[in-house]
Amino acid sequence: SAQRTDIATAVAQPNIALIKYWGKKDERLFLPRTDSLSMTLDIFPTTTRVRLAPGAGQDRVTFNGEPATGDAERRITAFLQLVRERSGRGERARVDTENTVPTGAGLASSASGFAALAVAAAAAYGLGLDARGLSRLARRGSGSASRSIFDGFAVWHAGHTGGTPEEADLSSYAEPVPAVDLDPALVVAVVSSAPKEVSSREAMRRTMDTSPLYEPWAVSSRADLTDMRAALGRGDLPAVGEIAERNALGMHATMLAARPAVRYLSPASLGVLDSVLQLRREGVPAYATMDAGPNVKVLCPRPDAERVAEALRAVAPVGSVHIAGPGRGARLVAGEC
Ligand code: PMV
Questions:
Q1: Ligand 1 centre distance from Cα of residue 102 (Å)
Q2: CATH number for the domain that contains residue 229
Q3: What angle do CA 232, 233, 238 make, to 5 degrees?
Q4: 291 CB under 6 A from ligand 1?
Q5: Over the stretch 22-74, which tens digit does the pLDDT of each residue have?
Q6: What is the reported pTM?
Q7: Rounded to the nearest whole angstrom, what is the distance from the C-alpha of residue 282 to the centroid of ligand 1?
Q8: 3-class SS at 323?
Q9: Which residues form the Diphosphomevalonate decarboxylase-like N-terminal domain (predicted)?
Q10: ipTM score assigned to the predicted complex
Q11: Do residues 277 and 284 lie in contact, with contact meaning Cβ atoms separated by under 8 Å?
Q12: CATH of the domain at 122
């Protein structure tokens, strides 16, 4: 049942997809073309407070104390508008976000950002949503945010577009995936924290519209997901890594074949990929995945994480290296931020 609170603070962490989300079959509803699967991290939390502001003429949004502008502000205001429509409450809001992840560098700050915003806004406006409802709501801010609602491994269902928009909206949400005895680490090599030149939204659209490799990747991604679920179910980390790496390289191949091409990987990214190959030659089961930016995330057994981090630090242009484990999903926290 909906409860009025008027003010709420939530924390969320980014997730990294092992089976990628790339391409929307419905842009307005954020319905993806394919299912995806991710691990929520235990680093880079985003903390967001939403406070209703009766009488205010517009939403006011800050990031790390600075007023939000441009596209970021528009996306948050549009998201709050959706929450207002669902709640039947018209008050504008004050939204303050503290982000610890470098924004716009393919480190999924939009995932932690919209997961935290969804949880805080749903509570402040009294929507009374369960985890699945929160996942569906977060999806409308940024697709990947649907997965950061959950701890550890989560699968996001693409849903179906056959019926009404309401039915389609109900059918696409994330949920936890069972995984046994993995003890994984994800070593994040930050190659650049500069904002990306092509947004993931634009890059997805261009890839779907023009890349001859897109459909074959979407088809093979379905098989990758089946294999991934099986590998997680038997706790086979090298298989998880191998499937994740091929799925990510395939996604980047679709972009390279787009017209004009979208290339997020830099020479430094390829340097990291080389050192991952070298680690494997030395017997360390390390596997790479890359998103809409040049940074590389390397999956490996937790006991190997320090050795992997060391190897990645030795790649000349790598800025910083962070070791993450599986983390908690988005949640409300007490008090003010
Ligand atoms: O952050 P979004 O929702 O615009 O999507 C980005 C998608 C990738 O990070 C490249 C892949 C994924 O599944 O997270």
A1: 15
A2: 3.30.70.890
A3: 40
A4: yes
A5: 999 999 999 999 999 999 999 999 999 999 999 999 999 999 999 999 989 99
A6: 0.95
A7: 31
A8: strand
A9: 12-162
A10: 0.97
A11: no
A12: 3.30.230.10
